Amino acid sequence: MHYRKVVQGRHMDIDKILLFLQELGNQSVDYVLVDAMGLTVHGIVRATQVVDIFVKPEEDNVARVRNVLKHFFPEDASIEEIHASDLAGEYPAIRYNSPDGSLQIDILTRLGEAFSFEDIQFEDKLYAGITVRVATPEMLYRINSNRS
After folding, report:
1. Which listed CATH number (3.30.460.40, 3.30.1330.30, 3.20.20.70, 3.30.70.100) goes with 4-147?
2. What pLDDT digit, counting tens, does each position of 43-99 carry?
3. 5-to-44, 91, 107 alpha-carbon distances in Å
4. Using CB atoms within 10 A of its CB, is residue 111 exposed (0-12), middle (13-18) or buried (19+)?
5. Is the dihedral of CA 113, 36, 138, 87 positive or negative?
6. How far is residue 62's CA from residue 47's CA, in Å, rounded to a whole number?
7. What are the two backbone dihedrals, phi and then psi, of residue 131, each rounded to the nearest 5 degrees?
8. I need a labelling partner for 8 at 20 to 30 A (CA). Which of 29, 50, 99, 104 fits?
9. pTM (2 decimals)?
10. Inter-axis angle of helices 14-26 and 59-72, to 10 degrees?
């Protein structure tokens, strides 16, 4: 499978997204895929420019997230600025834009008072040959309904 989507004049590479998700599993990151890519894993394809993941806001887990990002973008010093203390604090979400534009990732630990990492119900699903930890369809519906 090879697919590219234009993102702000660059290409978002679905193959790289899949490798990113696989590496999250390889590094034992506590994460859950949500939003449009989550729906895609469940068979409901929605166009997206961003991969949204909830992560457990503990320093060792966030360090593993940084390791995954450094695996793909070792030259990007901004990765070192991602810390659990920020994600667990007043601003529980950051957007990571890869230097080459192939990945745009929202890293979340909570959505206001409505949902935190611990609230997200998930399942492991096989998608494109890799195991992905994804929010259940019911959870995706609840998240999206809450945003409306």
Report:
1. 3.30.460.40
2. 988 777 799 999 999 999 999 999 999 999 999 999 999 999 999 988 899 999 999
3. 17, 29, 20
4. middle
5. negative
6. 27
7. -85, 125
8. 29
9. 0.88
10. 140
